[in-house]
Amino acid sequence: QVQLVESGGGLVQAGGSLRLSCAASGRTFSTYDMGWFRQAPGKEREFVAAINWSGGSTYYTDSVKGRFTISRDYAKTTVYLRMNSLKPEDTAIYYCAAGRLIWRTVGAGTKTSDFGSWGQGTQVTVSS
């Protein structure tokens, strides 16, 4: 397991940008695939993006492609989600997660149960 702490959420106007950070503890950061989920009120937790242990593979859900970028910094043991051109429908609590994925199956069907460690979440609110 790895401990994860998100930060960087806040209130932003539509069209603006935020960068979320997820700080991971320990020396095992480089062995984990990392993901971001989001959950809006009354909705299920949605798989947004992922990056594999080496940083060589990424996934984005269709609704954020071209707007969001996931990256990781091994020296800082931190994963980022840069969010540009934010829309009100991006409003949600964003959660960082760590796990070991089967990458041939990564996609819209990827579930929360595919990740074993979670951060506490950070609120992103996009006003119109």
Short descriptors:
4-stranded antiparallel sheet, 7-stranded mixed sheet, 11 strands, 128 residues
Would you spell out the secondary-structure blueprint of this structure?
Blueprint: E1 4-7, E2 10-13, E3 18-24, E4 33-39, E5 46-51, E6 58-60, E7 68-73, E8 78-83, E9 92-99, E10 117-118, E11 122-127
Describe the protein's architecture and organization.
The structure is a single chain. With 128 residues, this protein is an all-beta fold. The chain is built from no helices and 11 strands. The mean pLDDT is 97.
Q: Care to count the β-strands?
A: 11
Total helices: the number is: 0
SS class: mainly beta
Radius of gyration: 13 Å
Helix fraction, binned, reads: under 10%
Largest sheet: 7 strands, mixed
N- to C-terminal distance: 39 Å
Percent of sequence in beta strands:
over 45%
Question: Low-confidence parts lasting 5 or more residues at pLDDT below 50?
Answer: none
Helix-strand topology string: EEEEEEEEEEE
> What is the overall silhouette?
globular
Q: Whole-number average pLDDT?
A: 97
